[in-house]
Amino acid sequence: MAFQIPRGTQDILPSESSKWQYVEQIARELCRRYNYKEIRTPIFEHTELFLRGVGDTTDIVQKEMYTFTDRGGRSITLRPEGTAAVVRSFVENKMYGDPNQPVKLYYLGPMFRYERPQSGRFRQFVQFGVEAIGSNDPAIDAEVIALAMDLYRSLGLKKIKLVINSLGDISSRKAHREALIAHFKGRIHEFCEDCQVRLENNPLRILDCKKDREHELMKTAPSILDYLNEESRAYFEQVKSYLNKLGIPFEVDPRLVRGLDYYNHTAFEIMSEAEGFGAITTLCGGGRYNGLVQEIGGPETPGVGFALSIERLLAALAAEGIALPIEEGIDCYVVALGEEAKKEAVPLVYALRNEGISVEKDYQDRKVKAQFKAADRLQAKYVIIVGEDELARNVANVKNMQTGEQVEVALSELTTYMKKVCKGEY
RNA sequence: GCGGCUAUGGCGAAGUGGUUAACGCACCAGAUUGUGGCUCUGGCAUGCGUGGGUUCGAUUCCCACUAGUCGCCCCA
């Protein structure tokens, strides 16, 4: 094989792309209802943006970025996630001055992470995400979560679970962090190597460890929820209360930790519970990032959002055996017989297409039988047959492929007739 | 970054250290000289991921690489 697709990337072939279009269309429609407007930022940014925005201790920055030097000597990185770039644009375009606050944005496009591919993980993948920047109302956290859940529900997914947690504000996080270090420090040598490193970098992650799950210190470890200060606790209570009002079921998991540095207060994940879905069950991750806008150089501005992968969404649909309502077939196939008819078929097809009818014809010089087989394969609703006989009499035969019924129609009436039968127009 | 498994035609899938690489689906043609979905007949891999090595000889044995796949870490 001469050339191969780069590792961890995929071609979305015609048989799949209609599903993508369908899902994307539903996502855009939801954003219209929720009044989130699309923002399109570049696929690459200055590397520095992600170091600052995502956090230079995160796995994404430490080992997963596609970084290169451009011809001008700048360090450029293919975006590994969407939020940093959206916030950059928010600040750069001074959207904090927009009279419509909060600023509600969505994006849909490819992200890049240099990782070992596996089920549900790619080096290029497509994220749909929203960001609501400029409001500290817990109702907007609930709105963002509701939008994500709406997308899954409207596509028919049933086996999904919403998990939420609160990471608290800066002072709550700090108090909890110190409590965790104090809790584990004396006996950290009893834990796995990863956990020993985590104690320094991000002690919160120890709670998430799969290997040491059964260790007695795990069960007695301080929960973040016990370290939330009054304000953080009240905020979390309100978010939960709004979710209840919206009838959105959720689970609180005090061990839910998100991978990016910028999160505080609300953190959530939506996971698939479908059997055989694979090891990676996270469909969507999001949360609040109140310090990020300032970190990127803007005024102190709160924000909340989520990102979800279309690949995983489609995988979840497949795992639940859900077929999307996608129209596959074409309206009409023109079968031409004989040299003269073949020439006449070209303008006929053109005229029908101009009327909004989807039409195909033969370009392989196939026999009649094979042309019908092609029409059948394309799931054509109707076949128009034009041959020497018909041409001589200025008519065409129109066959309904479902019923097998065939009628003769004058060429002058043909487009009108086809519009009527294909589109119900008169 | 680490580990398991895998790599044969458009797809699925057998197979052997030695002259012609099963079979199924799909596709094409004919039976049916102007009509699909059924049936029958025929056609369809100078090639067995790539590159080395062992051997008189390798698709089959060994190594490396590449890719897929599943898992670990972590994430969407």
Automatic annotation (TrEMBL):
**Cross-referenced InterPro entries:** aa-tRNA-synth_II (IPR006195), aa-tRNA-synth_II/BPL/LPL (IPR045864), Anticodon-bd (IPR004154), Anticodon-bd_dom_sf (IPR036621), His-tRNA-ligase (IPR015807), HisRS-like_core (IPR041715), HisRS/HisZ (IPR004516), HisRS_anticodon (IPR033656)
- The main location is cytoplasm
Q: Which GO molecular function entries does the Swiss-Prot or TrEMBL record give?
A: ATP binding; catalytic activity, acting on a protein; histidine-tRNA ligase activity; transferase activity
Q: Which residues form the Aminoacyl-transfer RNA synthetases class-II family profile domain?
A: 23-325
Residues annotated as coiled-coil are none
Q: Which SUPFAM superfamilies match?
A: Class II aaRS ABD-related, Class II aaRS and biotin synthetases
Q: Name one Pfam family in it.
A: HGTP_anticodon
Question: Can you tell which superkingdom this protein's organism belongs to?
Answer: Bacteria
Compartments annotated for it: namely: Cytoplasm
Q: Give its E.C. classification number.
A: 6.1.1.21
EC primary class? ligase
Matches recorded under CDD domains: HisRS-like_core (cd00773), HisRS_anticodon (cd00859)
Q: Which UniProt keywords apply?
A: Aminoacyl-tRNA synthetase, ATP-binding, Cytoplasm, Ligase, Nucleotide-binding, Protein biosynthesis
Assembly with partners or alone: Homodimer.
Q: Which family does it belong to?
A: Belongs to the class-II aminoacyl-tRNA synthetase family.
Q: What is this protein called?
A: Histidine--tRNA ligase
Please report the organism this UniProt entry assigns to the protein.
Thermolongibacillus altinsuensis
